[in-house]
Amino acid sequence: MNGMRMRTLYIVAMQAVAIAASMLLAGCTADARREETTRPRASSPGCDATGADGSRFWTDLSPGDVDARGEDCAMLRFALNNFLHLAANDRQGHPRFMSYAPWYEAIPQDGGAPRWRDGYKPLATRALRKTAREGQPGDGFVLIDAHHRRIGYDVRVNRSYVDYLSRTGLYRADRLQAAADAFKADPATGGVWLPAGTRDTPGAVSLKTAWRRFGDEAPCPAQTMHCERDAQGREWGLIGLHLVQKTPTLGEMTWATFEHVANAPDCAPGGAAPIAPRPRDPVHPERTLAEWNLFDWTSYRAQGGDGARCAVPDGAYRYTVAADGQTLQDQTCGTPSATPLCNIDPRRNATDVASATALSVDGESNPAYSRINVCRTTQLSQCTGDGSPGDAAACLDASLRANFPANLDGKWRYYRLIGNAYMAGHAPVTGCFRYDDGPMLTTTPPRSRFPSTCNGIDTTPLRVRAGDTALANTAMETWMQAGTCLVPSPGATPLMGRDCFACHTPSTNPPGWPFGMGDMSFLFDRVPVPAPEP
């Protein structure tokens, strides 16, 4: 750990001028307490998976990996290793991540205290059904698969997270309100700060998973996808996973995301997943898989798709600034460069919903959302060894496929690490930290669209985003991918390219205002609020 700090201080010293310039642009003032930092060293060419085989759970980033491979590659290896460990079967034959506590056990909705239960915990229909809490972030839109079934979402946390809730009482609204008040008084110390663990014990880990429902006419392809049954016997296939982890080094709740290889093609040619009738089989390149999860070739072609590209709503983000120099007005999206065919607004207007020809979803007639075709706006890279974050993930994926761990089921070959996001130099494990996210605005003074301000306390540490700063999962942030602009409701901030840190900030909010959050985790929005006394 001391060596890691020395390396960080060296980087800070070498880049002080660049950081000072960015601070002036953001209208910040210097302070002795601020911990300045810059982007990390680029990953070494040919990032490989050697040693990242999931045989044990890594509780922190390895300084040796950072020295040998560069920080981008080391961070990706860290995420990949822990994904593989959690995907491996436990003694009962279930993936380890299925023993994590579902959100409704971590925060019981009856107000009771959470208690950890060992062992497998099956999917529950209550978690997978689409509700306001289970919707996609930022818009609540319903995502419908190629067979007109809604995508379901599950959120789980590890024992360290559950024990923290039980120990602090933060599963209760009054305790969370008190923590929010403490954060407001002093964000450097007050608030919710999840455990970081040690070199030998894991810190808080949170998983969000996306599931596609299958039926008798097309059962879940167990050879190429992980399949589960919920308590009612319905079959679901895993198509996406966010892995969020806090460690002694990674105080920023680092994000990594994984997808099934058949989720969606790239929106434009030139990447690793071109538009085609069926996705390529990465294990047997001469073959194709049966179908895409979120893209339908037939409807795409019928709507005028040329077979190579799928245009998205890519109009430019527009706004005006009020006389106070800071308030944004008239936020909207410009005209797309071409008629969008993918990633379009899925909402149906009242006429569509009432139409006798409206398609059913999950057997329900006249749904409020349409099935749309999904494509990936940021292409999946081919491994070239140029050292970029996208290339590092591609090379790591190629290395894993060539040397796949023998203890893992072959179905896990069909999942891919898309990327990860973290803070350069990493954030403190306790206390708020600031950073800029989103486009820089023409306000006075200039600021980013999604700044982390720590209640205006400019003595809190200043950080810079690193890794994949446009990270998105096609099954979980479908309409928030880079290069997309949609207005979710009149007067609302348009949906546009955001990464994890645009929404998950180091704040503590009470439940319901506008959403409960603690230490970057939205799980606290599920804290039940007692009904007011009559």
Automatic annotation (TrEMBL):
Signal peptide residue numbers: 1-26
PROSITE patterns linked: PROKAR_LIPOPROTEIN
UniProt keyword Signal present: yes
Keywords: Signal
Recorded superkingdom: Bacteria
Keyword Signal attributed: yes
Protein name listed in UniProt: Lipoprotein
Organism: Lysobacter brunescens
